[in-house]
Specification:
Blueprint: H1 2-32, H2 44-63, H3 73-82, H4 91-94, H5 102-121
Helix pairs in contact: 1-2
């Protein structure tokens, strides 16, 4: 899909360049004429070509874009955990020496609670 999206984007950019060139030529030709001050608005075909080229470029860019990330934080974090944390953007923060390891503290606390329950049951 990457080749197709690049091709569509390139075609749209060619159309956009042609529309820009046509608009420039129209303004140059209309400014060179010594006729009465008639309307120098762009012709409809140039406007349509510009709009179509913008739609084609947008379509090519959207088709070539990466897969969107989930919106909810918990779903995104869950996907990172399932993959083993390879693409975790906060991995450098979690590897710092002074960073408090929440998972280890939770495990330590749950073992302490289990030990307290076992002592109370005896």
């Amino acid at each position: 899909m990457a080749f197709l999206s690049r091709l569509i984007t390139f075609f749209g950019l060619i159309l956009l360049a042609h529309a820009g060139y046509s608009a420039h030529e129209h303004t140059v030709l209309s400014s060179n004429t010594r006729l009465s001050t008639s309307s120098t608005a762009l012709p409809q075909d140039i406007i349509v070509e510009t709009l179509v080229s913008l739609v084609v470029v947008s379509l090519g860019l959207v088709l070539g874009a990466e897969k969107l990330k989930p919106i909810s934080w918990s779903q995104w974090a869950g996907e990172i955990e399932k993959e083993g944390g390879g693409r975790n953007p906060y991995s450098r923060l979690e590897e710092r020496y002074s960073f408090w390891d929440v998972r280890a503290k939770r495990k330590e606390f749950s073992e302490w609670i289990r030990g307290q329950d076992a002592m109370a049951a005896q």
